[in-house]
Amino acid sequence: MICLGLGSNLGDRRGNIAGAVARLAAWPGITVEKVSSLYETAPVGYTDQPDFLNAAVCVTTTLTPQELLAACLAVERALGRERKVRWGPRTVDIDVLFYEDVVLATDELTLPHPRFHERCFVLAPLAELTGDMPVYGGKTAGELAAACDDGTVRLYGRLFEGD
């Protein structure tokens, strides 16, 4: 399973995430298989910014992990992402959370994502998509979310009407 985490806290947050999912789905070699609900959370790290909407998607792809990251970064740029402040406000953020069982550590990409297992805003939407599948340390995303203490995660709604 390959899962991505998405977040937005600038402008039309729902529209930004929907646009990112649509662009990923249109990218050659990427098929979006599942999309979570949206969750609203306060920012973590740099807190003087608007609340985030977060979601997760599971994809299948013919791309390598590095090529998938490049596609995610291109989608971010196309939707106006500017990297000015670490953990700062953003139109959209797309993280590769894990890519099957690949373990990787380069300057550009670490798999699995180094902090996904301790972030409630990642784990809540991820739990919808992965169910009983262990995602980190033999634990499910739901089990990890239950032990998480980095803030309140509120169900916001579905990304696409009719889902």
Characterization of the model:
This protein is of the alpha+beta class and 163 residues long. The chain has a single domain (2-157), classed as Alpha-Beta Plaits. It is built from four helices and ten strands. It has helices at residues 13-26, 65-78, 120-130, 141-146, and strands spanning 2-8, 30-35, 38-41, 52-61, 93-99, 104-105, 110-111, 134-136, 139-140, 153-157. The strands form three sheets. Strands 1, 2, 3, 4, 5 and 10 form a six-stranded antiparallel β-sheet that branches. The protein has a two-stranded antiparallel ribbon with strand order 6-7. The longest helix has 14 residues, at 13-26. The protein is globular and about 35 Å long. 37% of the residues are buried.
